[in-house]
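Figure 2 data, in text form.
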Amino acid sequence: MHIKDWQQIRKDFPAVNDYTYLDSASISLMPLPVQKKMADFSNRINYAGTVSFDEQSEIDAVTGARNNLAALLHCSPENIAVLSCSSEGLNQVAWGIQPRRKILLLDIDFPSDALPWARIARQTGAKLEFIHIKDHLSQLNTETIINRITSQTDVVCISQAQYSNGLVIDINQLAQACHEKGALCIIDSVQAAGIVPIDLSKSPVDALVVGGYKWLCGPFGAAGLYIADHLKERIEPAFVGWRSMKNPYHLDATRYEFNDGLRGYEFGTMNYAAGYAFGEAIAYILNIGIEAICQRAHQVSGYLMQRLTDLGAEVLTPQEDHRRTGTVFCRFPGLDGESVAVELNNRGVIVSPRFNGCRFACHFFNNEEDIDKAMEVLVDILQNQRHI
């Protein structure tokens, strides 16, 4: 894309005029067109109830999200469920699989990647095996995980992109290694979808979850679950309700027949406005192009990494583009990095304090001017803290 195109797109995110917003790994900004469509959808129902939201409309409410997420991930809509959050998807998969031997996890991953497996392990007697990498973050790579898979491993559940420093794992290579040892590969792509290209038509990943409100620029209350065909035939939804059944508006309590595809996992009345807006946000991302988004985020975050390095920061995000998202994590030798991050927020540079450091997150609506503004504020903060 040309620079003028990015400048035009940036107008859909007016908050960038009020803040230096570098926090999409936490909560991204939602583009104005998606905000409007979500509000219009919700207002129609709030105003006239079933007049504008009849039975067929309810059934079809998240069809767009299901289809658009399938397009983003390069898979069939029949392998997609639209849920309320990624944790719901991971719990459904964990209870469906019910592993009984070892479950391989990372101690640095977001807790939601481990907790569903910890719960099912209490039921089945499975053993949680953590790769302890928190204190050696720069040493983490795909091979680190592969080397810990054994013939006793039932499940490997890993984030495709680390929420701490943006490191991207090669999920295709990981899934292949899992299958060679007889393990299932479950992927959390919450920190990847929307900024990292994902092609499940060429990937042996068994199941994958995404969330709406980070790099996909969507709302809270909507997420996606993918389950590969072979696993879909092997497991059933752990939680079911009226929407799980074929022809849900038959409302026959004596029937028990799952809906087509993965719609059996969409079990109850949900926040339909969020589900609808989730689809619209993905459509917005698809219209720009995930490759273009990825390239733009790498360009801006690469500039940020160089500026941070020039200031003497310890950057703990990989330098290679293919190994990172738009997230940049750094520490400041001799200083409390989380305090620096808090002060940045106080001065309108929106970042996240994490792991005694500062996490920046650059998306496609960010530009080099944002980085220059952030660095100007950061220089002043560092000078003040070093003189205390």
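Caption note: The longest strand covers residues 153-159.
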